[in-house]
Write a structure and sequence with these properties.
11 strands, alpha+beta, DNA-binding, Jelly Rolls, homodimer, 37% helix, 240 residues, 2 domains, four-stranded antiparallel β-sheet, Arc Repressor Mutant, subunit A
DNA sequence: CGCCGCTTTGATCTGGCTCAATCCGTGTGG
DNA sequence: CCACACGGATTGAGCCAGATCAAAGCGGCG
């Protein structure tokens, strides 16, 4: 699956960075080999199980983190406990709010996740240089803004059936960072409760809509988690 | 109302920029007087009535624009015509998607609006320098991302009553760029239809919730447009 | 095997939508 | 100056998509 890509500078690169997805599309792709070598002395690769908190809302951020594998959900809660997932981060997204002392969201692992932790000071030193690294981070922020606004349409104006279809379509097109086209089969990285919180629905409604898509042969689900998309065009059509 | 603020460099500044809000909090605040003088030769101050399109979705962007006065709504539509307002821009926000050839949203004036049009090439030249101007634009993008995610909670998890209260609270705290505290009285810059599209509700529901807030003495409305907030704490409490 | 947590399925309820009538402020023409 | 028409806003009645409440089903793990 994960093969080491050709890179003319591989010989000068830290071993761990050589096969790293972030080296290509992620922010590390904007660094010179010298910068990469320097920062790699401070980074730390970690693995997290589902349901672990990475950043807490309104808490100081000690580290940024590159998502290397798996899915991280960004959530917000109301005082009374109502929750909304406000974004999903896939490899090779950078986690952490640049230029803010505290996070504005809670970031939690949804699936098994691999992260590359980057100390706040180390990354901010690279950013303040104001070169290609800051630019790459800005591009990610702008992309996230576009995605957030797309999702606002889903939350505000789509039916439950359209919401669930949109969610499956989003996963199919985002879950594999190396793949350009939509994936026909994958494991759901989110529980029904997480999906409900992402779509602004209840668990029961999500379940019923999935059952409906299954009954209509658009998708198949095995073991509650493993999804196969039989008809991607049909799915796209149902996104509203 | 609008007074000329003290600025030690005023004498070197273009006349039009001297009393301009964007000179202070907006992107122009990040420019040197030389840059400001240079770019001011290309900018053009325009006035627009409500309901005018400034940027069209999926269309090339000819110009960026600084909002100097009034409110601009950013909208997206589904094929079947369902519409969602995905953001409101107040002075001194910059309008236009940086580093994209086309807009991802439609921008339309909601109220009477004053804009400072900046040709695409002129602003992008300043940005590619990568200095404080790009940084200031990045800060705006990050703030807009925070706001979009806050609004996702409103769209996905709040009741109609909470949505309307949140909308009024948002206006009270954003409509006047010079004022730090919330405004107790202002004119609604959006029609009931626009408000409904912002909140993911229908016109009728918005109207009923406003009537309810009026009946409960939290607000007053004159002429359908002029709002007075009697009890800001009460309003805040009703935001969920 | 038996418990536990997640998911599905069923029955009922309700907040917000739909459809329809009316109101009201504004602009227009007589 | 008034009569009238028009577009946005309000109000009312009834309905339905999705929420809520409740009861199984199922898979994984000790």
């Amino acid at each position: 699956m994960q093969t080491v890509r050709k890179d003319i500078h591989n010989s000068e690169l830290p071993i761990l960075c050589q096969s790293c997805e972030a080296r290509h599309q992620g922010i590390c792709g904007a660094m010179t080999s010298e910068q990469l070598l320097a920062i790699s002395k401070h980074t730390r690769r970690v693995r997290r199980e589902p349901g672990q908190e990475i950043l807490a809302d309104a808490m100081p951020i000690a580290s940024y983190a590159n998502v290397l594998k798996g899915v991280v959900k960004l959530t917000k809660v109301l005082e009374d406990g109502r929750q909304q997932v406000v974004g999903l981060q896939f490899a090779p997204d950078l986690l952490g709010r640049p230029f803010a002392s505290e996070s504005r969201v809670t970031a939690e692992t949804a699936s098994d996740v691999e992260l590359c932790m980057i100390p706040k000071t180390a990354l901010e030193a690279l950013m303040s240089a104001g070169g290609p690294v800051e630019h790459r981070i800005m591009m990610q922020a702008l992309r996230e803004l576009d995605e957030a606004r797309d999702w606002m349409v889903t939350l505000g104006r789509k039916t439950a059936a359209e919401k669930v279809a949109s969610f499956l379509y989003l996963l199919a097109t985002h879950i594999d960072p190396t793949e350009e086209t939509a994936l026909a089969t994958f494991d759901l990285p989110l529980s029904r409760a997480d999906i409900a919180d992402f779509l602004g629905l209840t668990i029961e409604t999500v379940s019923r809509q999935l059952t409906k898509l299954k009954a209509e042969k658009v998708i198949e689900i095995a073991n509650y988690r493993h999804v196969s998309i039989n008809d991607l065009t049909q799915l796209r059509l149902r996104c509203g």
